[in-house]
Amino acid sequence: MDFSYSEEQRQLADSLRRFTEERYPLEARRKANGFSRDAWRMYAELGVLGLVIGSEHGGFDGQATDTFAVQFEAGRALLPEPLIPCAVMAAGLIQRYGSEAQRHAWLPPIAEGREIMTLAYQEPSARYDFARPSTVAEARDDGFLLEGEKVHVWHGEAAQSLIVSAWNPSAQAVSLFVVPSSAAGVSVRAYPTLDGTRDAQVTLNAVRVPTSALIGEAARGEAMLETALELGIAALCAASAGALDRLIEMTAEYLSTRKQFGQPLARFQALRHRVADMAVQKELALSMAHLAASAIDHPGAVERRRMISSAKLIVSRAARFVGEQAVQLHGGMGVTAELAVGDYFKSLMVASLRLGDAEFHADVLANLPIEPGTHALAA
């Protein structure tokens, strides 16, 4: 896959960068508390929210390279809004598996910025396991009755709708449902996260949804959810690569201006070597982010999962290394609000935990079957 930007991708990336630099600086992003309505409208105007949505539903038929270009810039700017959970994961899931009625109902509002949707799939004590949720969806004549609890719902407070995973006894499988956050019996308790965004704990107490809320086939919820998570991981790897790129730029600028013993810190060979090591890790993360994007359309499920998990594992390790080095090279200033380095470090640490941390993806790789002609990309 060719990852050089097309003219349209370059224009979109440049437009997003100009917006963040001129109209949405770091100070404003810090005050946004995880979400800015003005910024969200701008994302819709730029076409970011409808990127993966089909043109017949108001989108732009975007591919993996388009998502990469946008998320790389979003990561460079630490955009706090739910671009990945809504515009990539939820929109991508409905685009692929929703009925025509569901696509018509949900995709145009997402593309236009009128609807925010996120996934609610993690549960207490289950960590990253989503294969057998304790949330249950009992079939009723007029639909389903949902009962359960979800945690770590990414931007759950801002979402008007949730894609909820639940065990469906009638299908003996995991099913996915669109549940309005305002539905009777839905309780959303939001809380701040380390990176300045907000997650939520969602309680479903005898929540009734119609049959039309069921996404795709009742017995294919696990496979559909895995696809959405793969889309999210690829986008998150691109965003982390963008954050690493900007973090190294800031560190190099600081070392060039900060003086010690009458000369810039950048003159000290040992420090230059540390920045070089950071650059190596960034390039490795960037390459793996490209790999994750190329994996999205790979026909083989096992090899696709191998590529996605390898990317998430290596990008997470690179993020920790580069983040820690950046903070140390800034000295005491690295942990103050005066500089942005701390914001980037915290964002990268949270990103490394979302959608499976390094340990989880190492386990995934260890348990995948080795197909003929393939090899493990990470150990």
Automatic annotation (TrEMBL):
<feature type="domain" description="Acyl-CoA dehydrogenase/oxidase C-terminal">
    <location>
        <begin position="223"/>
        <end position="366"/>
    </location>
</feature>
<dbReference type="InterPro" id="IPR009075">
    <property type="entry name" value="AcylCo_DH/oxidase_C"/>
</dbReference>
<dbReference type="Pfam" id="PF00441">
    <property type="entry name" value="Acyl-CoA_dh_1"/>
</dbReference>
<protein>
    <submittedName>
        <fullName>Acyl-CoA dehydrogenase</fullName>
    </submittedName>
</protein>
<keyword id="KW-0560">Oxidoreductase</keyword>
<dbReference type="InterPro" id="IPR046373">
    <property type="entry name" value="Acyl-CoA_Oxase/DH_mid-dom_sf"/>
</dbReference>
<feature type="domain" description="Acyl-CoA oxidase/dehydrogenase middle">
    <location>
        <begin position="119"/>
        <end position="201"/>
    </location>
</feature>
<dbReference type="GO" id="GO:0050660">
    <property type="term" value="F:flavin adenine dinucleotide binding"/>
</dbReference>
<comment type="similarity">
    <text>Belongs to the acyl-CoA dehydrogenase family.</text>
</comment>
<feature type="domain" description="Acyl-CoA dehydrogenase/oxidase N-terminal">
    <location>
        <begin position="6"/>
        <end position="113"/>
    </location>
</feature>
<dbReference type="InterPro" id="IPR013786">
    <property type="entry name" value="AcylCoA_DH/ox_N"/>
</dbReference>
<keyword id="KW-0274">FAD</keyword>
<dbReference type="InterPro" id="IPR036250">
    <property type="entry name" value="AcylCo_DH-like_C"/>
</dbReference>
<dbReference type="GO" id="GO:0003995">
    <property type="term" value="F:acyl-CoA dehydrogenase activity"/>
</dbReference>
<dbReference type="Pfam" id="PF02770">
    <property type="entry name" value="Acyl-CoA_dh_M"/>
</dbReference>
<dbReference type="Pfam" id="PF02771">
    <property type="entry name" value="Acyl-CoA_dh_N"/>
</dbReference>
<dbReference type="InterPro" id="IPR006091">
    <property type="entry name" value="Acyl-CoA_Oxase/DH_mid-dom"/>
</dbReference>
<dbReference type="InterPro" id="IPR037069">
    <property type="entry name" value="AcylCoA_DH/ox_N_sf"/>
</dbReference>
<keyword id="KW-0285">Flavoprotein</keyword>
<dbReference type="InterPro" id="IPR009100">
    <property type="entry name" value="AcylCoA_DH/oxidase_NM_dom_sf"/>
</dbReference>
